[in-house]
Amino acid sequence: MSTVFEPTLSAAWARLDAVDAEVYARTRNHLGAGATGLGPYLTHGLLSSADVLASVASRQPLQVQDKLVFELGWRAYYRHVWAHRGAGIGVSLHAGPLPDEAYRRALPEDLRQGRTGVPVVDQAVRALYETGYLHNHARLWLASHVVHQCKVHWRVGADWLYGHLLDGDLASNFMSWQWVAGTGSHKPYVFNAENVARFAPEAWHSPGTLLDTDYETLDRRARDPAWRAPQAPPGVAPGLSEPPLCSHPPEALGFTAPQPDLVAGREVWLVHPWQLGTLPADLPADAVVVGVAVADFHRQHPWSERRWHFVGQRLAELAALRWFGSAAELAHALGGARRVRCVADPHLVPWLPEEAAGVEWAPAPSVFLTVARRCDSFSAWWKQAVPARGSVQDTLLQSG
After folding, report:
1. Which of 2, 98, 132, 292 has the smallest set of CB atoms within 10 Å of its CB?
2. Which fold has domain 91-243?
3. What is the pLDDT at residue 356?
4. Are 267 and 339 in contact (CB under 8 A)?
5. Annotation: CATH topology of 246-362
6. pLDDT tens for each residue of 30-39
7. 36 vs 30, 47, 117, 357, CA distance in Å?
8. Average pLDDT, whole number, for the chain?
9. C-beta separation of 354 from 334 below 8 A
């Protein structure tokens, strides 16, 4: 599957039209074969889970228990955890195999430059930098190596990966790293060279490396504070240049500071990086569409230029006005509008609360039922979010 992602609805739907749930279930763990490639479009709201399920179910029978539905369920479950824990998803949920203090707070340079000499690691870093995308299995391998072989704290790795991924979602990213680290699961996730050879192309295979061992040894290393993967000496092999991460959009994308006079007394519809789908059909003819990016968020979570361009190009199609400013500046500019509406997203809502910015938040579309009480396991959440079995059409699409 192509790893070039165009920020257009036509590109999103072309990928969706190619999804086959049966093929996905058989091949989803294989690099280059099973991934749907829908991540950037789901994360940034060009597609919704309802779009995915409705499209696939219109072409083939789709059951609630199918792997594709489970995969969408994991995204929704991580959002559920985020809704209950807030910023708490960014710290270890419980103790892992080692205390937090046992882990380093910086990535080794040979890993960051993709020259560790372990092919699966170096290929993953190269793919991340060159495409802004990684197959989920490759993400797990890379995270496992960072945490358990290099003894780097999971949050350091999660922030690094998030910045480069086109589909970086804080909930899915942080919670997946915690699952690998063993701070959000019952044991550390480890993998070996045999696993890579089974699921990855030959260039990724890693025989004769530190991964070419049994799982007992790998688990023992994960629990040993003295174990660290040996680093490649500087200059032994040419390294990759890491793309810079930017806390502000490139000038070419045409963002400006918030301008209150352009929306004073007007009805405003906000579009933002996590809701880049079609505009509402009921917008008044004189409504002003404003694209926003909150500087406070991006100072904490900078993006690659690739991701800024992915988001910025789509925002330009939707909104002639595109503002980049602090939460306070945006709230001030929007305060003079007659009405401000927007689709809610947890990446954005904390920065523009209704009492400060006057934004009316519409709920984001979902096919899963809202579970009021926090569930600390996917299975507990699933039983309440999907209360019945059977076809997707009968259960999820109608109830959602």
Report:
1. 2
2. DNA Cyclobutane Dipyrimidine Photolyase, subunit A; domain 3 (1.10.579)
3. 64
4. yes
5. Rossmann fold (3.40.50)
6. 997 768 999 9
7. 11, 13, 29, 37
8. 94
9. no
